[in-house]
Structure formats: structure tokens, C-alpha cells
Specification:
nine-stranded parallel sheet, alpha+beta, globular, four-stranded antiparallel sheet, about 25% strand, single chain, about 650 residues, disordered C terminus
Amino acid sequence: MANSSRPVGIDLCLHGFSHVYGLPEHADSLQLKDTSARDPYRLYNLDVFAYEINSRLGLYGSVPLLVAHKPDTTLGVFWLNASETLVDLKYWYVFGILQQGERSRVTPQTDVSWVSESGRIDCFILLGPSPAQVFSQYAQLTGYQALPPMFSLGYHQCRWSYEDEEDVKSVDAGFDLHAIPYDVFWLDIDHTEGKRYFTWDSKHFPSPVDLQRHLQTKKRKLVVISDPHFKADPEWPLFCEARDGDHFVRSRDCRVYHGTCWPGDSCYLDFSSSRTRSWYSRQFLLANYKGSTESLFVWNDMNEPSVFSEPEKTMPKDAIHCGGWEHRELHNLYGFFQHLATFEGLLTRSGGLERPFVLSRSFFAGSQRLGAIWTGDSVATWDYLKISIPMLLSLSVTGIHFCGADVGGFWRDPDPELLVRWYQAGALQPFFRGHSDKRSMRREPWLFGDVVTSAVRAAVQQRYCLLPYWYTVFHQAHTSAMPPIRPLWVEFPKETETFTVDNQYMIGSALLVCPVTDPGVTEVKVLLPGSDEVSLLLHYVNACPSQITISALCTLVLVGGGWVGTKMEGLLPSVCSAPNPHLPVPQGFADGELYLDDGHSFSYRDKKEFCIRHFTIKAGRLTSRQGLDVCDLFFHQTYVCITSRVCNR
């Protein structure tokens, strides 16, 4: 074999630090816990249905990046290893005597122990010293967040599974009838012919091109699933082509590896091979993928990889990849490689002109370059709604910025209150998709009565109102690596009371979010960091208290030294109403920017066709100036701004 299996590790002392974050993916708190008396954090990609919460066990993806923070310094530790990895943490204090007669000094310290099953020591220390500098340093190593196409920041409707073309058209019409905007419809595994990917069920989806054209007339897209396993069917030409082209992972005895997944007996593509990735990418060409159009995009699932018939439901560690590498050496990279091949396939399909959209369940360091990630098979309970927030923040501080959780929870049935709260939370997270298990009741928003329909409509419309702001913060992620959603300590690094907060977060530098994650709540307490700033709570101005209590009808607070661009176009929930002339306007200073381009192509990069407009409010007067390569074509009257984070100066 290419490598012998020999564990490697390193012990580090982070002197002066008592708060560390990162190491996704775990259903646990944002701040990493002391593991002295408990299990270590495990980085090992696994298919875990209805995963345990408040746990350090490995889930679908892994990013071996730890971020430590204290008021004057942020640093990162990136352990580049794709084999199974365990990380132990110990928080403690160092006592020292300065000089005779002086009192002892107590200094916090965090000890970190990394142990990987195989590989070599490849460790990067990111010295910061600010959070923004750590994020930039990490992005220089692993890549910046891809700038997503605008449609992918809208709402996505998914279920395992929609039954047929008429079902799709009926649900699509339901969104129009109830005035709930959405951009993307999703099809799970049952749209295929016997769970053979790159095919369509001839009975239930006989006219896939017509279906996509139907959605296209409303500027909507279709996403279909493509898993890494192929049904072992010698009558299926694509399976035979993959087998004869030596594109499958092999067993220890060098025969093609067989495992069990949705199609039954299956073989698994060896995405570690560049030759196999190129072959797989070509399958997305319109000439090869019959029934596909340019408005079809892709979802990679089960790519940890999931193997139902094996221990821990994944591929044996002694399976053999291209070049003789054992699977144990690159296990955590398997899903990344499929994500990469799919991304390259959609890129090639458009001749390199259009931005791909690909969602992947499994991920590794660098997956941010390829598309979106979600938190997998959650359960429709309040605890899973609550834990989704620190899970997404942990992903965000480790470079995985385009992330989200299944709205409503994947498994079981949410009650109407939980469903509404999850929509309100999901509308304020980067990737916004409703998804559910086939054993769950249908949960299109209008099935729960007028009150629920109205509340969901308001949450989704608020999302569309804020799309220009979301697009701007994603451009900042794409160019500077600043996370679109970020823990409070990232924006307020010296305020120690923010260091353990993981039920609130910032969208960019201007919006503070506090989702409601408990039943029966009528008001919530919100920490307002920033001592020299004025906060606008929708229509109310607050004089900088450190904590306020607000109505649970609101999850959004506008705080600190920036502004928010919003989109009107007939969507008029309160947050995007035109400025109220009777609203008290602080006599302070605020500034910010709005980024726009065509929303779908690489012209912003290749032809410099984009707009950056800088805005300033001072003494109640709004002014704007041109940024780089301004194209006024993109700036029109449907965009207005709401001031926030107003500094008293």
C-alpha cells in the first residue's frame, strides 16, 4: 500500500486562551468543551440519522481547524489530516509568582491534543491577531467561499420525495397561490429509474425537460440528487462504463468493492482519482445527462460515504483507492472529492461561464470553494432547532460559510409553532431549505391553516427583502473570508460577555439575530454588545442598554456601525418598509456598502462587471459614492437602505 498506518499527533499549549471554537461537525455548543473527563472530539465523516445532540461524536463532515480567542488576540490551528482524528481539550490556569512580595498571577491556558490514525504531521498556526486576519489566513490556505448564484440565496423547497411531475407542479402553484416566494424545487432519489443516478423515472417523470421549462418560465430552478454509489446492475450502461473504466473503489483483495445503499447492491466511485472525477464530471453535460437542462443543479448526498452494510455505516478502512491508498488515509476527503467533481461538471456544462450550485452533505477543509453544506438528518424537535445555531456558527468560523439546517427538521412532524419558528430562524441563515423525510407528513406551509401560512409568508418575504444584503455579505466572504453569519465575539472581540453566546449571532456587521427556539415564548432577552452604538430594533430606537427584552414576534435587531440594503419589488413586511418620517433618527454616523452583479455568471470576475456602492448617513443625511467598476445598470430604484449600527460620533 502507499502508506503504512501509523498514528501521528501533536500537543499544543495555547497560553492565555480560555475560549476555543471550531472542529465541526458536532451537534454541540459553539465553545468547545473540556474533554478531560469525557470523550474527545471526533473528526470522522459518518451518516448519522437523527444524531445525538450535545455530543462530540463525528457527523457528516470534518474541518480540522480550531480557533482560539481572547480580547486582544485570535489565532487558529489547522491540522491538515483526512484520516480519523481525535482532539482532546483541557482548560486550566497557570499560577506564577512575579517577584518577591508580589501576588501570584493567574493565566488561563488551553491544552490541545491532536491524534490522527495515519498520515503525517502537517500543522499550520494562524497568528491573526484579529478574527478577520485568522479567517483570511485560513482562506489563503484552503480557498475562499465561492460567490453563490443569487437564486441559491432564496428559499428552496424539498422533500423525500415528491411523487411525480403533477405533484411538483401542484406544489409550485401552491407557492404562487399563497404568495410565498421561492426559487428552487428539489427532487430526491425517487425521481430516478430504480435509483440509478443520471436517469428519470419514465412513469412518474416522463417529461423532465418540460418540467424544467415550466419552472424556468417563473425563473425557478430544479435540483436533483446524485449520490456516490452506483447500482450494481450489469444491464445499466453507465454502471458498465464505470466498471470497465476502472472507476470504482476496490476491496482489499483488489476486486471491485460492493456495499449496500439505496439501490441495494452498489459500487462506489473512486473520486480520489482525477481520471474518475473527470469521467463523472462529463456525465453532467447536456448531451450525456438526458432530460437535463441548463436550469438543473445538483445535490450530493450519502457521500461520507454511507454504506448500510458496514460497521458505522461507512466504507471499510482497508478499501483501496487510486494509487494504492487505503481508505483510512483519505476517508474525510471522500465527500469533498465528489463535491469537487460535481462542481467541475456543472462548470464545464456552461463552458465556464455560469456559477454552479451544488449542495453536499459531507465536507472537508476547502469545501467552501464548491458550494453549500447542510447539517443533515435532524429531528423535528425544539432541541434540534436550538442546536442548529451553534452548529452553523461552528461551520462559519471554519470557512464553511454557505450552510443551513433543514427547516422544520428532517424526521418526524413539527407542530405548527415549531414549524413557524424554524422558518423564522432559517430565513436568517445562509442556506434556506425546507426538507422532510418521506415518513413525515406533508408540510407545505399552507397545510397548517391561515395563521401559519401568514407567519411563514412573512418570514420568507423578509428573506427576499434582505437578499441584496445577503448577496453583499457573501461577496465579502468571497473576497475577504469574513463569514456571512458570525458569532458576536467576531464583531465585538473585546467584549468578554459575548465569548460564550451561541443563541445569537451577526449577519454581516449590521444585523444581530436572536431566533426564538423555545415553545410558548412571548419575549426574549437579547444581549446588545457595543457600548458606543445605537441599535434600531425594527421601528424602535434603543439607547444602548447591554441587554433588552423584546417581543418574540421579532428575531432581528439592527445594531452597530453599518447599514442594510433591502429589496422591495412588492414585498413589504415591516423590516423593509420605506423609512418612517416620524421614526427618531439618531444624529450619529453609519456607513456600509452594497454589492451587485448579474447574479449568475463569472462576468464579475472575468469582465469586471459589477457594482459596489458605498453609503453614508451622517446627521440624518444619506449620501452615496461609487466604488470599484461601478455599473449603474445594476443599481435601480427597488433598492433602499435601512441604517443600523449607528455610532455616536
